[in-house]
Design a protein that fits this description.
binds iron/sulfur cluster; about 35% helix; about 375 residues; alpha/beta
């Protein structure tokens, strides 16, 4: 971005050569204002006005930022845009789950899911197109990594959901979207810089204003980045565990070969603030759902501020796994709870809309192009 000679009559560059402004955190915005020749004494105030307009009131056009001088609005529009990702498909399940397939500027597609219920609304965002890893039970794991998402593409998913839900903070109504989880397509800690910047944008108290307790980063176990996440951001941590021993976990989550369970749990113990850590555990019939597996899990997590989310396996075409029956899953849960660990058994959400991570994108790619658009 070069700034200096811009005038109010100068035409804006085509959208493809402009950046989405919502990908800038506060420091990035201050630097951008400096490049646009905004005087140093005004920058802090202008940044706050922009953050408030874009993230609190949901502006989609710089002309809506009426507390800024017209010349600054024009300059911003010459270098940035506020356009949301394009919606390729939207599915609403009978249980209220909403799943969107979104298209990015380069034509790549990602999934974003909104899950209402229990007095809150959780948005599950993607952090990569495809995934670096290939967890055996995960449909996204069958896709190669295409590329990392930028911070703007991550934040764009949240802005899109807020538009669709008419849920901008300025409304003053009880919020529908209360939590954001990095649990969509991709391993967020293999895209640390973009994810960290997106978190800082979500946490900005003059903008979207999420508290650290309402933003969760879920990892398959990138140990060095867990330490960094705790030190730099302190958001909530979720860990995809899925097996109580290294032999089985390495088969289900191949990343375990690099950072085995012992190292992973040590990183969890170091995670700051004694915050509750959520361990995700997909229940797979005959693989990890036996009574002794529940007891081994209890022993493993002893002494950690841990909660276990039990997730019934959500089948996808060609997967080699089955979901255990209700009786088995309830028994597994009871053993954990009798051992003192909270272990909610998640209700499968949105099964009627291909809600398993990655399914919608694959289905859309199988359809002829004109029907997918
Ligand atoms: S579970 Fe997460 S990390 Fe593993 S393959 Fe799926 S998207 Fe990637």
């Amino acid at each position: 971005m070069g700034a200096t000679e811009a005038t109010t009559t100068e035409a804006a560059a085509p959208e493809s050569s402009r950046e989405p402004l919502y990908g800038l955190d506060r420091d990035g915005l201050m630097a951008a204002l400096a490049e646009l020749d905004v005087p140093a004494r005004e920058r802090r105030m202008r940044a706050r006005q922009i953050v408030h307009g874009v993230f609190h009131r949901g502006a989609t056009d710089f002309d809506q930022l009426t507390d800024l001088p017209k010349t600054l609005r024009t300059r911003l529009a010459q270098h940035f845009h506020l356009v949301r990702p394009q919606v390729v498909a939207c599915h609403q399940a009978a249980d209220g789950t909403l799943k969107w397939l979104l298209r990015l500027d380069d034509g790549q597609e990602i999934e974003t899911v909104f899950i209402p219920g229990g007095g809150r609304g959780t948005l599950c965002v993607s952090s990569q197109v495809g995934c670096t890893l290939s967890c055996a039970f995960c449909h996204t794991g069958t896709m190669p990594l295409v590329r990392q998402l930028t911070a703007a593409e991550i934040v764009g998913q949240v802005l899109h959901a807020l538009d669709q839900l008419a849920d901008w903070p300025r409304s003053g109504r009880p919020r529908r979207l209360t939590n954001v989880v990095f649990m969509g397509m991709g391993e967020p800690l293999f895209n640390y810089e973009a994810v960290a910047r997106a978190c800082r944008i979500l946490l900005d108290r003059h903008g979207l204003g999420f508290s650290r307790r309402k933003v969760t980063v879920s990892t398959a176990g990138v140990v060095p980045a867990i330490d960094r996440l705790g030190r730099e951001l302190g958001v909530r941590l979720a860990v995809s565990l899925h097996a109580p021993d290294d032999e089985r976990r390495s088969r289900l989550v191949p990343l375990n070969r690099k950072w085995p369970i012992g190292q992973l749990l040590e990183a969890c113990r170091r995670y700051p603030g004694g915050r509750m850590i959520t361990f995700e555990y997909v229940l797979l019939a005959g693989v990890n759902d036996a009574d002794e597996d529940a007891r081994a899990l209890l022993a493993l997590l002893r002494g950690l501020p841990a909660k276990v989310n039990l997730i019934p396996f959500n089948p996808w075409p060609g997967s080699p796994f089955r979901c255990p029956d209700e009786v088995r899953m309830r028994r597994f849960r009871r053993i954990l709870e009798e051992g003192g660990i909270e272990a909610p058994l998640r209700t499968p959400r949105g099964r009627d809309i291909l809600a398993a991570c990655g399914q919608l994108r694959t289905a859309a790619r199988r359809r002829p192009r004109r029907r997918a658009a």
